[in-house]
Design goal:
60s Ribosomal Protein L30, Chain: A, 8 helices, four-stranded mixed sheet, alpha/beta
Amino acid sequence: MAITYAAVRALSAQLYDDSLRKVPDDTQGALRGLLQTEANATARQTLTFMLKSAASAETGRRFVCSDAGVPVFFVRIGTGARLEGAIAQAFTDGFADLVARIEPPLLEHVTNPLTLQRGHAGRHMPLVSYELVDDVDWVEITCSPKALGSGRWAALEIFSFPSLDVIERYVLDVVMKAGSQPCPPVVIGVGIGGSFDHAAKLAKVATLRPVGQPHEEAMVAAMEQRLLKAVNQLGFGPMGTGGDATGMAVHVDYAAGHGFTPVAVCFNCWINRRTKARIHNDGRVERLE
């Protein structure tokens, strides 16, 4: 058997639909954890409202947020996977299928950056990136829609041989500039090194890590903890209401590179939308998130 165009078309549409209606379990757990430690009464009320909203959306199959964003997919292709048909086109057609049937309807968020014309289709939409994985026979698809609140405040700067202090100070500068606009408590992804494009992808993929799961290298994990502590001392709090709960997690990753070092910072809002599944060669679909 093979992983077919039809299977990818159907699954990509379903993952996007589901991501709009459920806050991931790890994210709800992180919100509950912040609620237990938050000292600010208004912030506690806001966190409680967020958790109630998440539960209502999931049980009632409603959108958690009216800004459905645009579909972004990260696709990992096993070297043992057998592909059949126009797999890349399947993501575009799956998105069109969803637009035609979804309730409530999707707002026209897909925007031409040159003309500002809005609709449901456009060049390179959906946004899909691909990665090869050795010695497995599946295709793994992660959907993480990107909306205005968190997408607007991502940033990247290139340094020459920066120290850890310089890198961490830049991350905090980006967070302070963003303030409450990305709808905190946020998950912050940081990508360091490689090239311009690679650092940006590292930052985005870092946000997809389960909330609070530390980097496997002790030095990087310690950096994540320092940054999270500093972020939560900024005082923005949930949705800008004040308090300690500005960040759920800071996830850092890095790549070797040249002496020039890109540092990319991006945000996921409190909903932290993320769904994931694998299609195996035998046609089996395995839901992971």
